[in-house]
Amino acid sequence: MDEFTSIAYWTSGRQPLEWQRERGVEQGIGDDAAVITLPAVTCGLTADAHMVLAVDTMVEHVHFNSITMADEDIGYKALACNVSDIAAMGAIPLHALVAISVPKSYDVDRIRRLYDGIYACADKYGVAIIGGDTTSAPSHLTISVTVTGAVEAGRALKRSGARPGDALFVTGPIGMSAAGLHLLQHAGEAEQSGYSRLIAAHQRPAPSVRAGRLLLQSGACTSLNDSSDGLASEVWEIAEASGVRLLIDEQALPKSGSMAAYAARAGVPPLDWMLYGGEDYILTGTVTGEDAAEVREAFLREGLPFYVIGQVKTGDPGVELLLSDEGFGQSQHSGAARGGRGSRRTILIEKRGYNHFSTVNG
C-alpha cells in the first residue's frame, strides 16, 4: 500500500463524523491541517476556556518492546500518557494528532493493531483523532501524540501553588505499573496469570481525568502533577516549582496488595517501586489542609480513591520521607540510618525517577 492508502486503512470509519462534529472538529483527517472550533463551545464548559496542549513521544526499545507490550497496548499507552498530562491540569481532553515513523519490519496490519489501541483509548476518554503524520524509519518504531484539551480560563491546575499547611495527596495506589513491567520481564506465563492487575497497570494505564476535574471543581487544589516519571520525581517538581518542602509519610502511601505480594516473591523492596517506578498515571498534588477531608468525601461519592500521604512545610525546596524502622530495612535511600525498635526517622529522598538522558536507566 502507498502512504495514503495505508492511512485510510488504519483510520477510516473509526469515529463517526457526527461524533467528531460534537467535539468541535470542522476538518479532520484528510486535509493539510485539522480545523476545530474553540473548546468552550465543544466540551460543555459554561465559562470562557483556555486550550491545554500536551505532546509525548514513545520510541521502541526505549519506552516499549514486543516482549512486554502488544501492538494494541503500545497505541493505547501512547495516547493515554498524553491524556494523563491533560488530566493533571484539571482539563478535559478533546483532540489528538498522531505521528508515527514506521520501520520496514512493521507491516500494515501491525500498524492497524497499533491504531486499534489508539482508538480504544480515544473512545474511552472522548478524544477525537483529527490528523497527524506518517513517515518511514530506519530501524525502530516511533510514535508521537499531541493532545488538546480545555479548561476554564485562568483555572488550570499547576505545580507551583503548594503552600505550607497544605495536605499532600495521591489519587490511587502507586508502584503497580513498575511491578507489572518487572513481572513481564522476569516471570513466566504461569506466574503472570495471577497478577493481571499489575500487567494491566503497565500495558493499559488509566489516566485520572475525572479525578482532575473533581480537584479543579473543589477549589481546594493548590498544585497538581501526574506520576508518570515516579512519585519521588513528581513531588520534587512540585516542591521546586512552589518553593516549599514536602513531607511524605511512608505509612500513609497506598500499597496495592498484589504489588506487595509480587514484590515479596521477586525480592524487590516495594517502596522502591512506589517512589521511583513511575507510569502509574495517578495524580499527586496538594489541597488546602482544612479542605482535605471534604475533598476525600467528594472522591468517595464518585467511587474514586483519594489518599493524604503527607504535608507541605516551610523550608528549602525538597522532599522528605518519614520512614519507619521497618522501612529502613526494606529499601535503600541516601541518608537512611537505623533507629531503635519502632522508631521513625525523616530522611531527604532522592530526586530520582525516569530520566531519558540518564546513563543509569534500566
TrEMBL record:
Ligand binding (Mg(2+) 1): 56, 133
Pathway: Cofactor biosynthesis; thiamine diphosphate biosynthesis; thiamine diphosphate from thiamine phosphate: step 1/1
Top EC group: transferase
Binding site for Mg(2+) 4: 32, 85
Residue numbers binding Mg(2+) 2: 56, 85
Binding site for substrate: 63, 279, 354
Boundaries of every PurM-like N-terminal domain copy: 30-151
Entry keyword set: ATP-binding, Kinase, Magnesium, Metal-binding, Nucleotide-binding, Thiamine biosynthesis, Transferase
Binding site for Mg(2+) 3: 32, 85, 226
Reactions catalysed according to its record: thiamine phosphate + ATP = thiamine diphosphate + ADP
EC number: 2.7.4.16
List of residues binding ATP: 115, 132-133, 159, 228
Binding locations of Mg(2+) 5: 229
MF GO annotations: thiamine-phosphate kinase activity
Transmembrane segments: none
Span of domain PurM-like C-terminal: 163-316
Gene3D superfamilies named in the record: PurM-like C-terminal domain (3.90.650.10), PurM-like, N-terminal domain (3.30.1330.10)
Top-level taxon of the source organism: Bacteria
Similarity remark: Belongs to the thiamine-monophosphate kinase family.
Function: Catalyzes the ATP-dependent phosphorylation of thiamine-monophosphate (TMP) to form thiamine-pyrophosphate (TPP), the active form of vitamin B1.
Further remark: Reaction mechanism of ThiL seems to utilize a direct, inline transfer of the gamma-phosphate of ATP to TMP rather than a phosphorylated enzyme intermediate.
NCBIfam families registered for this protein in UniProt: thiL (TIGR01379)
Record's protein name: Thiamine-monophosphate kinase
Gene source species: Paenibacillus chungangensis
Name of the gene this protein is made from: thiL
